[in-house]
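User: Second chain of the day. Same drill as before.
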Amino acid sequence: MKLQIISAQEVLYTGEVSQVTLPGSMGEFTVLRNHASLLATLSAGTVRYTDDAGNNLSSEITGGIADVDNNVISVCVY
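Assistant: Same format as last time:
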């Protein structure tokens, strides 16, 4: 599945991943391939993701929104 992490200034990450863990405003949640569509608000915290090569990566965010649809996760941060 494809992960895009973007801010108003730049693209922070774009690539294929096997899983993503996001700091939701109602608690942390993990998205795997073929996840149901959703739209969620994000709190300050760490976005953790595993790329297709098995590397564990992370990005600190101060908040934002996440959109999951058809194996594309779009994370807009501020």
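The beta strands are 2-6, 11-24, 27-32, 38-42, 45-51, 56-61, 64-69, 72-77.

User: Great, on to the next one.
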